[in-house]
Amino acid sequence: MTAAALAPAPARPRLVLSPDDDAILAARATVRFHLRTFAAAEEDARAGEVEAVHQLRVATRRLRAALRLFEPVLPGRFVRSAEEDLGWLADAIGAVRDRDVLYAALKALAIRLEPDLRKAFGPVGAALHDERTAALETLETALDSDKCRRLLARLGAFVEGQTGAGAPRRLGDAAPALVGPLVRAVRRAGRRLEPDSLPADFHRLRVRVKRLRYALETLCGVGGKPVRRLLRELEAVQDVLGEGQDAVTQTAWLRRYAGGENVRPATLLPVGAAMQALARRGGKRRRKGFKAWRRLDDGGIFERALAALGAATRIRTRPREARAKTA
Predict the structure, then answer these.
(1) Average pLDDT of the chain?
(2) Which residues, in sequence order, are bridge partners of residue 14?
(3) In whole angstroms, what is the distance from residue 269 CA to residue 120 CA?
(4) Which residues are registered as beta bridge partners of 170?
(5) What CATH code is assigned to 14-316?
(6) Residues ≥6 apart with Cβ < 8 Å to 40
(7) Contact 293, 190 (CB under 8 A)
(8) Domain boundary assignment for the chain
(9) Are 152 and 171 spatial neighbours (Cβ–Cβ below 8 Å)?
(10) Which of 315, 59, 81 lies closest to 176 in space, CA to CA?
């Protein structure tokens, strides 16, 4: 693993769908789009490049999200099988990516330590490097497996129209029913929260926000400005909750490391300091995330976005094919 900080993601192409697109063809266009992103990142991810691993993980997550979104208009058996296998692949990619994120966080924490403590923190980085190397080998094995090849072949066959589907249905007509359950799931999770709720409860909201965000990004061309506004708010909530969850998982890793065999006593002191800093950060991010969620839920933004998606059932524009456009 390189010592470089995690680089920001470059501007990427985006998918643009129209309310008049056929829903099944829109699903195929979406899967095709994310398969191309997956293919573009795979070689560099195998080589261990940090940003490529991130892009491979995002493409896999978005493929799962697309299948979940369009499940009502697609063959259920195909969706369930592909989604399960994508989850398996996402776990292998995530094992590498999580260690990249942890490395960047621990490096930032180490800079703030006193020189003697920073030196004693060195074995932690070495252990993390070894884990990352092993996780990358596991990922390469997964990518080379028959299971992965079959998965990509099934998704490719779907994109090319070799997987059966139901009767044609206009995307603008289908959109409210596709998004509605995701909105309800987000609001249920959010409205159960209190400022002092458990980290697992905040993580549940974050996962559901992320699924809704991916769905709305796919349908952004259908709902217009109200959907784009909701997307911005969801992204802000997801980011702050993600920072809080990162602190939880990073603390858990450090606790596991500290409880291992052959850990030098001198290393335990900076590990403890890092855990305290992460605990404070996690608490602050959860409190900030709770306030951001309340502002979103109380602001009428959900209602306006859903109304805009519902309006797409009544507005018909000049037909055109679903296409990808560079932002």
Answers:
(1) 88
(2) 325
(3) 8
(4) 22
(5) 1.40.20.10
(6) 55
(7) yes
(8) 14-316
(9) no
(10) 315
Interacting residues of 170 by C-beta distance below 8 A, sequence separation 6+: 19, 20, 21, 22, 23
Closest CA to 326 of 37, 15, 40: 15
Q: How does residue 115 score in pLDDT terms, banded at 50, 70 and 90?
A: confident
pLDDT band at residue 322 under the 50/70/90 scheme: very low
CA–CA–CA angle 58, 64, 66 (5° rounding)? 100
Which residue, chain included where needed, has tokens 């974050």? 206
111 in the Ramachandran plot: left (φ > 0), alpha (ψ -120 to 50) or beta? alpha
Supply 219's token pair: 């349908």
Long-range contacts of 259-263 (CB under 8 A, 24+ apart): 263/123
Residue 7's contacts (CB-CB under 8 Å, 6 or more residues apart) are 50, 51
Residue 325 has φ and ψ, to the nearest 5°, of -135, 140
| DSSP line for 236-266 | HHHHHHHHHHHHHHHHHHHHHHHTSTT--HH
- Measured over the CA atoms of residue 195, residue 298, residue 190 and residue 284, the dihedral's sign is negative
Give tens-digit pLDDT for 219-266.
Answer: 888 888 999 999 999 999 999 999 999 999 999 999 999 998 888 889
> Model-level pTM?
0.85
- Of 4-8, 51-55, 121-125, 265-269, least confident by mean pLDDT is 4-8
Q: Is 283 exposed, middle or buried (0-12, 13-18, 19+ CB in 10 A)?
A: middle
Q: What is the CA radius of gyration of the chain?
A: 22
Q: Looking at the predicted structure, is the pLDDT value of residue 313 above 90?
A: no
**Residues 161-204: pLDDT tens digits?**
865 555 678 898 898 899 999 999 999 999 999 999 999 999 99
Residue 294 · residue 263 · CB < 8 Å: no
Q: 73 and 174 in contact (C-beta within 8 Å)?
A: yes
